[in-house]
Amino acid sequence: MNSTKSRRKVGPASAAENGAESADKLEQLLLSSAICNNEDLGPFIRKAFSSGKPDTLHHHLRHFARSKESEIEEVCKAHYQDFIMAVDDLKSLLSDVDSLKTALSPTPTPGSSPSPAHSSPPSTPSSRPAPFR
After folding, report:
1. Helices (H), 1-133
2. Which of 37, 55, 91, 124 yields a CA-CA distance of 20 to 30 A from 113?
3. Out of 17-26, 69-78, 105-114, which region has the weakest mean confidence (pLDDT)?
4. Taking residues 39-48, what's their average pLDDT?
5. For residues 3 and 19, what is the distance between their CA atoms, to the nearest angstrom?
6. If you count DSSP H runs as helices and E runs as strands, how many of each does the chain have, helices first?
7. By the 8 A CB rule, do 61 and 31 touch?
């Protein structure tokens, strides 16, 4: 019972496929780097359209946007509780400021008018200095 079965070898993809894939990855890396460095994307766009592959550029841009959205979500998740605590602290501080303003404001008694804070007494003719002659 010596049967010989031919096995299909599963190996790495062909060199052409690997080359195309690595070129694609390199292009995506260069595009991401250019975006992060606020560089001009014109050359990438021209190359994509001149080579007839605008869909590839679109795919790379979508991939970059998704990765940035994920980063933003992670940062928000990491700092959400701190943000909520800071807002609560600010609300409490605002409430304390309102209470302090109420406590410091003079309460006028009925029948009296509030006096200005730094007013000087009215001058009378006898309290004025004599003019220089």
Report:
1. 15-36, 42-50, 54-104
2. 124
3. 105-114
4. 92
5. 39
6. 3, 0
7. yes
